[in-house]
Structures are given as C-alpha cells and as structure tokens.
Amino acid sequence: MLSSLSQEERSRSEHNLLNIQKTHERMQTENKTSPYYRTKLRGLYTTAKADAEAECSILRHALDKIADIKSLLEERRLAAKMAGVYSDTDPPRKTMRRGVLMTLLQQSAMTLPLWIGKPGDSPPPLCGATPASSDYVAKQGDKVAARVKAVDGDEQWILAEVVSYSHSTNKYEVDDIDEEGKERHTLSRRRIIPLPQWKANPETDSEALFSKDQLVLALYPQTTCFYRALIHSPPHRPQDDYSVLFEDTSYADGYSPPLNVAQRYVVACKENKKK
C-alpha cells in the first residue's frame, strides 16, 4: 500500500519536473523571460515542492512501519530465547556454526537504518559516531562492545548482547555473542559501549562520522572482537564502510593494511594512548 502511494507521488512529481524542464527549454528558445513564464514557473516549483514533501512524508511513514516490524521481530526473538524456543533464522548459540554467525552479523550491519532527518535536524545519539547520552541504558537484546577478561587474564573488547541492567548496582549482564564463548558477564557501565543504532549519511551528516586518523575500536573482520584502530578513510556514500588500520605489531609501521568495517561495528575508543 505504502509502496503504491509512493510510486503515485513519484509519478506525479516526475510529470511536474518534466513540465519545469520544458518551460525552461521554451524560455531559452524564445530567449526571453516574460511575466507569463515567471508566473508559470513559480506555480510549477510550488507544486514540485509540495509533491516532494508529500513523497517524503510517505517514505518516512514507511520507515516508521519498518522500524515497528523490526522491533516486533526482536521482541519475539527475545521471548523465544527466554523460553528456549528458536527459529531457523535464530538457532540456539550452542548449535550455531561460525559461518552462520558471521553472516548474521553482516546482515545486521547491512540492515542498520540510515538516519534521515528533516532539514535543520541534528543526528541523534547513537547515530554513527555520535555517542549515547550520559544517562543512556542499553535495552535487553541490544548489541554492545563489552570489555571482559579473557581466559589468559588479559582484557579484551567483545561483541555482546545485553541480557539485563540493574539500576541498583549500575551493572549489566551481557552474553558473549560468540557461540564458542558461552559466557555471561556482569559488567559496570564503563565497560559497556552501545553500538550505533543508525548509520550516518556522509552526504548530509558527515559530522556524525569518525574522521581520518581518529582512534576507534573496530570489529576485526570475521571475528567477534573489537580492536584498536585508526580511521584510514570514513564512508563517502551511505552504503560505504569505514576503512581502518588495526594496530598490529607484526607490521613495520605498527598497523595493518586498510580493512573495511561497517558503521555498525565502529565505536569510540575509551583508551587514548597507544599501548
């Protein structure tokens, strides 16, 4: 239904834009700008603006519906997880193959919604590089970067899913997203970094992206761990990834060759000094 309405608005808009183009062509042919043409163009542009606003309204409504559907699916997934019931698209962690997990993480990055604000709007918290507000509490099911102690005693940042948050202790319970971990961690807020909930559009909101040479934590490709990296180049188009240089002492300059990481999995680094 919404798709049909959008197409109708698009067709009406295209017809009006064609009239604007033809009017300009006639003006150039006659080499004059008469009061008639000025009045006609003013009316055509007014109509074109109204058509664009109507189409924009329909598309925003469609995006809201998509967000509602995704939220409902996530609620059902969490309810099934708590009940011990799983679907084919969300198998239990103990049976999930690593290849399946990597595919799910990639899909999560690809389907992260693009922030599309109205003229004059600023990107909200958790849009791209924009941090969460100081009092923000991640919800059950949210994906976060979590700093945990590894088996060897070293600390590392892992991709985790929020299980719960206690306001009395100010601590999270999170699950390691990696099936091989099978661990639940109780962590303070300072050990949790919420992941972006929207992609920032480089063409309209470049200020909401990390800039070149900025230090970040990025999910290393084909793993579920975050490592320190420098931004090699930010995205240039909405569908682009970051290009990052991971800290790696096996290379002469201390950094890996450029690797692509989706906006979904790049967050601010809380440690400023290089180890």
TrEMBL record:
Chain ranges of the SGF29 C-terminal domain: 134-275
InterPro entries per record: SGF29, SGF29_tudor-like_dom, Tudor_SGF29_rpt1, Tudor_SGF29_rpt2
Keyword 4Fe-4S included in the entry's annotation: no
Keywords: Nucleus, Transcription, Transcription regulation
UniProt subcellular location: Nucleus
GO cellular component: ATAC complex; nucleus; SAGA complex
Biological process according to GO: regulation of cell division
Family annotation (Pfam families): SGF29_Tudor
CDD domains in the record: Tudor_SGF29_rpt1, Tudor_SGF29_rpt2
UniProt-annotated stretches for the region Disordered: 1-35
PANTHER family: SAGA-ASSOCIATED FACTOR 29 (PTHR21539)
Identification of the protein by name: SAGA complex associated factor 29
Gene: sgf29
